[in-house]
Design brief:
By secondary structure, the chain is an all-alpha fold. It contains 13 helices and 2 strands, in the order H-H-H-H-H-E-H-H-H-E-H-H-H-H-H. Strands 1-2 form a two-stranded antiparallel sheet. The longest helix is centred in the N-terminal third of the chain and has 27 residues.
Length: about 325
Amino acid sequence: MDRAGVVFKRPLSFGLLFLILILFVTLPLCVPPYLVILLTTIFMYVIITVSWTIFSGPTRYISLASAAFFGVGVYTSALLGKALPLPVVIVAGSLFSLILALCIGLLTLRLRGMYFIIFTFSISELMRHFLLWWETTMTGTVGRWVVMVEHVTVYYVILAILVMALLTGYFVRRSRFGLALRSIGEQEEAAAHIGINTTVVKTITFAISAFFMGATGAIMATKWKYIDPRIAFDPLLSFMPVLMAIFGGTGQLFGPVVGAAVFAYLEELLTTKFPYYYMLLFGSILIVVILFLPHGMVGLVQNWRKRGLKRRNANS
């Protein structure tokens, strides 16, 4: 495609995205409450997956700490929700998660491969079991009541966080910072050799991804009346972003969006229709994707487009 075609295509894409955003903004006015709640859950998974991809996609460091950052946001909302306004609670949950990510990053981002994966998952499990011990031993009760917020309000807040996460991911990918991240993923030793402070770059990006996960946890907690460490630090929240990103494909920013949206809807559909078999069906779908779609759904679509272009060029 020539330069003029690219220039024409970019405003068209932004215009389409703006129309989709307008659609989502007006949707609660004309659809049943169940659909709004379902979309809120889907948006939650999309944010966590996009946030995970901002760091793990280009660097190829597989983080399993998503549950820890999400859980910090949930517990921030439970502890501060009665005393502070909702926007302040969300910002506090985001900042606490960011600070936790900075501490984890400075300690562990010199580790690589399986060591980093195991350590990040251990952080989530450590926080879950520590809070269970603390509440059982020190407070005598497990779990906390959360100040409820109207589901439409939760929907709009989660939509705003989603837009901010997508914009952040877009600008990070197109910046020199994103180029440094990709160079770390390709060959970290070479990146360090040309002057990139790999530890600082990785730590900052890790903290940015945690910021949005904490914000998501803080607002989603208001959707649930009661939370405890098992809910807040659910291990599935550490693994689901990885699976959703693989399902959609990490080569493009919209890959994780598509993967998370489809996966979240599948989860809702299978748990409703097949409550006793949905994990088996879920696992089967994953195996098929990993074996036959190594670049995810987006990679499959791109391959179809390339084949179509080749056929057009051959016929012309």
